[in-house]
Specification:
Structural class: mainly alpha
CATH class of the largest domain: Mainly Alpha
Number of helices: 13
Distance between the termini: 27 Å
Shape: elongated
Number of domains: 2
Number of strands: 0
């Protein structure tokens, strides 16, 4: 990520240099809006899809704000009452759009309200010429930002998404190790809650990367269904690990035979190996992928006759059930990686 951040900063500087050079060649009335638009679109959008989406929303919001302002200026000559009413009505409409709950509309609503206020409150500059100049210069800035983002050292969200999935699997392996393998010890001393939160953050990041990947116009089309399936598998594995940990923790208070402990350790070891292999795998390597076997953990049920109390048996069933969920989802992930 550090290399990508450095490359992105260089790209932003290149876009600013292009915009500034253009303002030296062409005499724009409000040249600063070109540079400002480039920075707004590019600064916090490292991926191509994110920059294109930000540019599109800024363009659309500016267009809406300019159109309303032009109507007020041309029909009502920017009278105090017309400006007052336009600001009240416009700000209420745009703020309603901005808080709609849809990420794509939030920035659009904000830009529409800001543009409307800037034009109508520009005092002597409140004119059709000012509105047209703002729209033109912002559009030029957006165009420069999106072209540079797309064609100058493009950074694609699709590549980062695969890296994120690898990191997620690595963290799931570590989480499994800390909660279940180390959890077989008599005393639980490992704090795994921070790692759980980190995995959740990675899963949320995957969703954002998927959105940016879907907005990238060039290259291989992003398969949303394929991603949703893989994300579902990772979430299922995380849930199952947590439930297995709860069940295993309850079972630690029961008397488990050495054989049962050995079977648990055997299964846990195979899952760790599988998750590690998945994190390091490529589509070619995944074809020869070895799934963890359920034989060891299913034998636990046969060895549980000594557990006459109903509650421990229920915990054992929960442990076996969630183990099956983990294996099933690892198998599905391997299949998805091959496709």
């Amino acid at each position: 990520m550090n290399n990508e951040r450095l490359l992105h900063s260089v790209k932003t500087a290149i876009a600013v240099a292009i915009g500034f050079s253009l303002t030296r060649i062409v005499s724009f009335a409000y040249a600063q809006w070109i540079i400002i638009s480039i920075l707004v679109v590019m600064c916090a959008q490292i991926y191509v899809g994110g920059a294109l989406q930000k540019g599109y929303l800024r363009f659309l919001g500016t267009l809406c704000g300019c159109c309303i302002a032009i109507v007020v200026i041309e029909l009502f000559h920017s009278s105090v009452l017309s400006v007052f009413l336009a600001l009240i009505i416009g700000s209420s409409i745009f703020s309603y759009i901005a808080v709609s709950g849809k990420e794509t509309l939030s920035y659009l609503g904000t830009m529409g309200a800001v543009t409307l206020a800037l034009i109508l409150l520009g005092k002597s500059d409140s004119s059709l010429n000012y509105a047209a100049s703002r729209f033109l210069e912002i559009s030029i800035g957006i165009l420069i930002a999106t072209v540079v983002s797309q064609f100058v050292f493009p950074i694609h969200a699709k590549k980062q998404l695969r890296k994120n999935q690898t990191e997620t699997l690595t963290q799931l392996r570590e989480f499994y190790n800390k909660t279940l393998v180390m959890g077989l010890a008599e005393v639980q001393t490992v704090d795994h809650h921070d790692l759980d939160e980190e995995i959740v953050k990675l899963l949320l990041k995957q969703r954002q990367l998927a959105k940016d990947s879907g907005r990238e116009p060039l290259g291989t089309a992003f398969d949303v269904d394929h991603f949703e399936q893989s994300l579902f598998c990772e979430r299922q594995i995380l849930r199952a690990i947590n439930f297995m940990h709860l069940a295993q923790d309850k079972l630690r208070s029961a008397t488990l035979s050495e054989k049962m402990n050995f079977l648990l350790k055997t299964f846990h070891g195979e899952v760790l190996t599988a998750l590690d292999a998945m994190a390091k795998s490529t589509p070619e390597k995944t074809k020869s992928f070895k799934l963890p076997s359920l034989d060891a953990i299913q034998h636990l049920r046969a060895d549980s006759k000594e557990m006459l109390v109903l509650q421990p048996i229920l915990y054992l069933d929960a442990l076996i059930f969630n183990a099956e969920i983990i294996v099933e989802n690892i198998a599905l992930l391997a299949k998805l990686y091959i496709e």
